[in-house]
Amino acid sequence: MSDDVECNRGALYHRRIANLDTAADILPDRRTFILFEVNIHRSVIRQPSGALCAPLSWPVIALAVLSLCACSGRPLAVMATPTPIVPQYCTLRVAGRWIVDAGGNIVILHGTSLPTLTEMAQSDRNAAQRLRSLAEAGARVVRLPIEQREITPTFVPAVVSPFIDQANALGMLVVLAYRNDPGETVRKQGEAAEEWLRLALTYLRSAPGVWLEPFARPIATPKWRAMNQRMVDVARGYRADNIIVVRAPDWLRDASDEPLVGDHIVYAVSSLEDWPLDVAPFVLTDFDGAGIRAVQDARVWSIATEAVRPADLAALWRASQPCE
Length: 324
Hints:
The protein is an alpha/beta fold. The chain is built from eight helices and 14 strands.
């Protein structure tokens, strides 16, 4: 900056444009002198001429800004962009055979399955309307199936995340269930499920209000246990605390076999018979509404099929033990 510019006559202001933070000094004659532009992604200094200078660290940049502010004798006023309030669901974890909240209180929720987001968008009742009516009926968990044809690079942040936020704001947890294609080979189903899981974790890693079910449909293969163990390992490789829902863990019927290795694992079954309900948390999925007393006595979670009317399950749903 030229010597004839008096430091105390400038006013430093902050302006955010796309991914650039631009600091500028407004001179008395209203001319704007660009001090520097910091590209957040590349962290380099760009002069007005476009020439690149050596990279600067954030502490150096902060020191420069503070120096200019102190020199001007005026406080630095930064206009912050308001951040929308994102509803936060309570943090849940596995403790033995139970799901508990941060205070160690047992949480048992009941709810229902939904159509895919595409199917709801094409129906006479959209996702938001369905969530509101289910919440009013007492549902505390919804299972959302994900079809392969729905998935695009922006599907999770642009479509799935807003749905999760709406459900969480209404007090409902969301289980994202990837619908693997039984028509594909076992290997391709595993690869597709892992690809979806990685995409979901990129945006939803450790989000407390969403669980992930890598396989919505069980696969008849001797590798079934290993395939699910792989999904758990992938999630933990992301350092994600999301609970992973493992469907039809047939190996648990063998008393000599053990649950999968790792934490934050819940098992989904279509009936309560012949399962070791005392070794891990279980969710009764595809619940048809019959045997409500058995569900309550077993103290397991339940997710009803789409065909069951909410009115028929309202009493069970309202008996949920949500987060404290």
